[in-house]
Amino acid sequence: MGMTNFTDLSNTMADAVEAVSTSIISVRAGRPISGTVIGDGLILTVAHVLHGEEVTVVTPDGRELSAAVAGRDPSSDLALLKVEELDLPALSASSGVRVGELLLAVGRPQHGVQATLGMMERQPTEDGRSRGWLPSGAAPFRGVSGGALVDARGSLVGVLNAGVSRGELLAVPVGLALKVAGLLGSTGRVPRGYLGIATQPVMFPQAEGSESENETPTRGPRGGRGREGWGGGRGRGGWGPGGQGRWGQGGKVGLTIVSVEAGSPAAQAGLLVGDVLLSLDGETVRRPPELLWRVRERAGQSVSARILRGGQEQDVTLVVGER
After folding, report:
1. Least buried of 36, 78, 79, 198, by fewest C-beta within 10 Å?
2. CA distances (Å), origin 125, targets 133, 171, 176, 226
3. 14 and 140, same structural domain?
4. 288: helix, coil or strand?
């Protein structure tokens, strides 16, 4: 890269920080954190440091304003603040970024805007593998939590959080962040669906003559248990996809139910310890985190579960609970 190109890149990054800086505010919550303006009088920040129902925010031009906490979501660790007479521009959401694009982590902890450079390491996903968190690739600095992860165009990629992973600056992807903000603004909370079961991945023995090249068909289930996805471990083998199974529609992976909460939706539907959950609404469920993401936004809705009990497949209808 020539000196001219390097200067152009540097100027582009500096211009992006300058453009978004008017949408990044300081939040006084016991220790310095940042906030990101996402709408008229609306600010997203992190929830775990907020205490009480009111906080003070400081705008880029030095105004101190009172902000009401409209709601908190412990799952995403986001909180929505409402501020009268904020009169600051909201960041526009990114339409998508490519792996390898340079990103900027921008915060305003106390005295002026700060920024650090990162890179898009992978695309955001909500399939349970990352629980919605997006690595920013940037080095954290004090007070960056609640700030904005933006691309070189100044568009919002995610809301930053340095407190959920030691030494790593993560972000809630903008799509999820705005969805949470919408629910917090309208209801003050984010309802989470649940079934009330703890599960463990299991690989069924393969049919004779269908051994997979990379798996050992007779190996039992491995990996830690997960309560609908939280804390579920991965085994070193034995429950990944591949190969024709003895049961199910071409799959050989399921979730063995190892506990059922009394009075839970699963208990009311008659699910038992030892049942194997094969699919929800026709889609295979291979890992505990996948189960969590399938039901978390379906509180109050009916789902059809296919289970294996005593070597026989059967369908069970459940109504997803809310908590």
Report:
1. 198
2. 8, 12, 10, 19
3. yes
4. helix
Are the CB atoms for 141 and 154 separated by under 8 Å?
no
| Dist. CA 224–CA 131, nearest whole Å | 17
Of residues 38 and 296, the one with the higher pLDDT is: 38
In this prediction, residue 222 carries a pLDDT of 36
Q: Are residues 181 and 214 in the same domain?
A: no
Q: What is the pTM of this model?
A: 0.71
Query: Domain end: 154, 169, 187, which one?
Result: 187
pLDDT at residue 2 in the model = 55
What's the pLDDT tens digit per position in 49-62? 898 888 999 999 99
Dig out the tokens for 237 from the structure.
Answer: 């083998």
The first and second tokens of residue 50, run together, are 């907020």
On the question of pLDDT at 164 being above 90, the answer is no
Report whether 303 contacts 233 (CB < 8 A).
no
What is the predicted pLDDT for the residue at 107? 97
| Exposure class string for 207-226: b at 16+ Cβ within 10 A, else e | eeeeeeeebebeeebbbebb
CA dihedral 301, 302, 308, 309 (to 10 degrees): 110
Q: Domain span at residue 246?
A: 193-322
- Residues in CB range of 39: below 8 A, 6 or more apart: 90, 181
